[in-house]
Write a structure and sequence with these properties.
single chain; alpha/beta; TIM Barrel; eight-stranded parallel β-barrel; 8 helices
Length: 323
């Protein structure tokens, strides 16, 4: 059993005041080097400026860091043929380090109506089918679907991995799970207790059986380290972005072990940290999590209970992130 850590930079962060380090070349190079040294495996690009900015930042990051690049993306802004060419180029120039993090409707899952929700996911499904076909086809093809029309679709310069650029998705509805089960290599989980997260993992795997992918999907959990909980106007703790962990502490590491036992294989750190916090995570938290899991695997230590008494920062009944 092992886990990886992803560093989230941009609008998904709980503290989005001011420009991110991406827009300062000297600072971004130094920060990315520190992030990698702290034990992170990937960097998630998710900027308020939008999809085209994410393309530019991913291209810039590929030349100054060896971290895997997770680029937030969504259907409906760029035509599939254009996106497929740009993404193939990014994957090739990054040495095969690109992953595509698909949101629905730019982060709003399907709009305000049930019909809009279903349509948004259907568009994303068709978009991903076309991307994969464009990344792998040997001859130009035509396509006529409910959302896209293509004539002579072809990408002459393929990515290093063809159609196997990793896709990341999330969601909670039956429609969302069905599309994610078909396409996602990594499923981003909604906040919940370890037992609730374990239940969502089971739902995703059950949906993936139809596509022969039940054991091919890995699971990521967005987490945030906090010294105190934020509260809404009515005094209800806010837990919509990520599971809240109790600061950069051994207690937080133990909480992460419970989620790892539940099936989480990647933790997405969504705090906008400075150098001190990044260094402290790499020194005090990441090694404790990894070493504990390694010892458990080597010596078959008793599992951490899903119902352990540690405070996890999750508040039952708080609204979950539907992304």
């Amino acid at each position: 059993m092992s886990v990886e850590f992803a560093f989230v930079a941009g609008s998904m962060s709980s503290n989005s005041e001011g420009a991110s380090f991406f827009f300062d070349p000297a600072k971004s190079t130094a920060t990315l080097a520190q992030v990698e040294s702290a034990g992170f495996h990937s960097i998630v690009i998710d900027e308020f400026a939008g999809l085209l900015t994410n393309f530019d930042l991913a291209a810039s990051m590929s030349s100054v860091s060896s971290l895997r690049i997770v680029m937030t993306h969504w259907a409906g802004v760029v035509a599939p043929t254009v996106a497929a060419k740009q993404l193939a180029w990014l994957d090739a120039t990054s040495g095969g380090r690109l992953a595509l993090r698909m949101l629905v409707d730019g982060g709003i899952e399907g709009g305000e109506t049930a019909a809009g929700h279903v349509a948004a996911w259907q568009q994303t499904d068709e978009y991903l089918v076309l991307l994969k076909r464009l990344w792998s086809n040997e001859e130009p093809f035509d396509h006529e679907g409910p959302f896209y029309s293509i004539r002579g679709g072809f990408v002459p310069h393929k990515s290093l991995r063809g159609f196997e650029i990793p896709i990341r998705m999330g969601g909670l509805s039956g429609t969302a799970l069905k599309v994610a089960a078909r396409h996602a290599d990594i499923f981003e989980l909604a906040p919940g207790s370890p037992a609730e997260v374990h239940g969502l993992i089971a739902r995703v795997r059950a949906a993936a059986v139809e596509y022969g992918r039940a054991e091919k999907i890995r699971f990521a959990l967005p987490v945030r380290f906090t010294q105190r909980q934020r509260h809404g106007a009515a005094g209800t703790a806010i837990a919509t972005e990520a599971v809240q962990l109790p600061g950069l502490s051994p207690q937080a590491a133990v909480s992460m072990l419970a989620y790892a036992e539940a099936g989480v294989e990647e933790f997405m750190i969504v705090d906008r940290w400075g150098p001190e916090q990044i260094e402290r995570f790499g020194r005090e938290v990441a090694p404790l999590v990894k070493n504990s899991l390694r010892r458990k695997e080597d010596h078959a230590l008793p599992p951490v209970s899903l119902l352990s008494g540690w405070r996890l920062g999750y508040v039952p009944g708080a609204p979950s992130n539907s992304r």
